[in-house]
Automatic annotation (TrEMBL):
Pfam families: 2-Hacid_dh (PF00389), 2-Hacid_dh_C (PF02826). This is 2-hydroxyacid dehydrogenase. Keywords: Oxidoreductase. Signal peptide: none annotated. The keyword Transcription does not apply. One of its GO terms (molecular function) is glyoxylate reductase (NADPH) activity. It comes from the Bacteria. One of its GO terms (cellular component) is cytosol.
C-alpha cells in the first residue's frame, strides 16, 4: 500500500510529481501556513510530512498522528520542531543543511554591505526626488567594510561561508562558539569570548541556531558592550535578538545600524522599525534563490522518501529513533 503524506504548503510541481510516484500526497497547494488545528487534523492519518518553518510540530500535534514516521523540514533551522517530543514519539525529523549555505552567506553580505553603506535609505532618498546635485561632503557617508573587524556568532557551515568571503575585503575575522573549533574549521577566524566578540566587532553577524537557551542573547547589555559604530546583521532567527532593546539602541544611536532578515514574531514587524533610517528589513529571504529553494525541496523529498522506505535519511536530526 502506498504511504500517505502531507505537504503543508506550496512546493515545486516537479517535487510533488516525484513524491506522488510512491506516495498518496495530500497537498496544501497554497503558499500559506495551515492553521494549527487543520495541520493536526490532516496529519492524523499520515505516514510522513514535508513541513516548513511556519509549521509547529509538538506533542499536541503528535498525539493525533499515530502513524507518523517522519517529518521533513524544508529549512536548515528546525526550531519549529519539538525534537524531544518527536524522539519520544519515535518520529524521525530531518532538515536541509548544506544546500543553502552559500546562498545564505551571500544574503548576509548583501545585508552587511547595505547597512554599512546605507544603500536602502539612499535609494529611498533618490526616489523621493531629494537629490539636487552631487556633493563631496554629502549626507551619505557610510562605514568602511574593508579592513574592518567581522564578528561571527556561531561558526557553523554558514558562518564559515561568511568568513571565507571576508578575505576579499581584507577583514579581521573573529568568531564565538561555545567551544573553540579545530584550526581547519575556523576559516581563518580567531576565537574570542562572547563579550570580546561584542566589544571588538564592527559587523556582528548572528548565525547560531535558535533554542530557548539563546532567547534574547543579544539584549540591552550586549548592545551596551558593542561599539557605537557597529552594525548587527541577523539572518538566523528573530528570537535571538531582543527586538525592543535593538529598537532602543538604534533610536539612540548606541549602535550604528542593523540589517534584519528575521523577526521575533514573523510576519509581524515592530512598526517602530519603520521610522528608523538605520535599519534594513527583509522578509526572511536568506535562502531565497530559485535554485537553492529547489535544492532544499529536493533534499527534503530525499529525506522523506528514504525514511518511508526504511532507510536512514541523509539529514536525520534524531538518530536515537532508529536505535530504540
Ligand atoms: C531558514 O530560515 C532556514 O532555516 O532554512
Ligand atoms: C547552521 O545550521 C549552519 O549551517 O550554519
Amino acid at each position: 500500500m502506498k504511504k500517505k503524506i502531507l505537504v503543508t504548503r506550496w512546493i515545486f510541481p516537479e517535487i510533488i510529481e516525484r513524491l506522488a510516484a510512491s506516495c498518496v500526497v495530500d497537498f496544501h497547494d497554497q503558499d500559506t501556513a495551515l492553521p494549527p488545528e487543520t495541520l493536526a487534523d490532516r496529519l492524523a492519518d499520515k505516514d510522513g510530512a514535508i513541513t516548513f518553518l511556519t509549521d509547529r510540530i509538538d506533542g499536541t500535534v503528535l498525539a493525533h498522528a499515530k502513524r507518523l514516521k517522519v517529518v521533513s523540514n524544508v529549512a536548515v533551522g528546525y526550531n519549529n520542531f519539538d525534537l524531544d517530543a518527536l524522539t519520544r514519539a519515535g518520529v524521525m525529523a530531518t532538515n536541509t543543511p548544506d544546500v543553502l549555505t552559500e546562498t545564505t552567506a551571500d544574503t548576509v553580505w548583501a545585508l552587511l554591505l547595505a547597512s554599512a553603506r546605507r544603500v536602502v535609505a539612499a535609494d529611498k532618498w533618490v526616489r523621493a526626488g531629494n537629490w539636487k546635485g552631487w556633493q563631496f561632503h554629502d549626507p551619505w557617508y557610510g562605514q568602511d567594510v574593508h579592513h574592518a573587524t567581522l564578528g561571527i556568532l556561531g561558526m557553523g557551515r554558514i558562518g564559515r561561508a561568511v568568513a571565507r568571503r571576508a578575505s576579499g575585503f581584507a577583514m579581521r575575522v573573529l568568531y564565538h562558539n561555545r567551544h573553540r573549533l579545530p584550526p581547519e574549521s575556523e576559516a581563518g577566524a580567531q576565537w574570542v569570548a562572547f563579550d570580546e566578540l561584542l566589544a571588538q566587532s564592527d559587523f556582528l553577524v548572528v548565525m547560531i541556531p535558535y533554542s530557548p537557551a539563546v532567547h534574547h542573547l543579544i539584549d540591552v547589555e550586549a548592545f551596551a558592550r558593542m561599539k557605537p559604530t557597529a552594525h548587527l546583521i541577523n539572518v538566523a532567527r528573530g528570537g535571538i535578538v531582543d527586538e525592543a532593546a535593538l529598537i532602543e539602541a538604534l533610536q539612540h544611536n548606541r549602535i550604528a545600524g542593523a540589517a534584519l532578515d528575521v523577526f521575533e514574531n514573523e510576519p509581524h514587524v515592530d512598526p517602530r522599525f519603520f521610522a528608523l533610517e538605520n535599519v534594513v528589513l527583509t522578509p526572511h529571504i536568506g535562502s531565497s534563490t530559485r535554485a537553492t529553494r529547489f535544492a532544499m525541496a529536493s533534499l527534503a523529498a530525499d529525506n522523506l522518501l528514504a525514511a518511508l522506505a526504511g532507510r536512514r535519511p541523509p539529514n536525520l536530526l534524531n538518530p536515537e529513533v532508529l536505535s530504540s
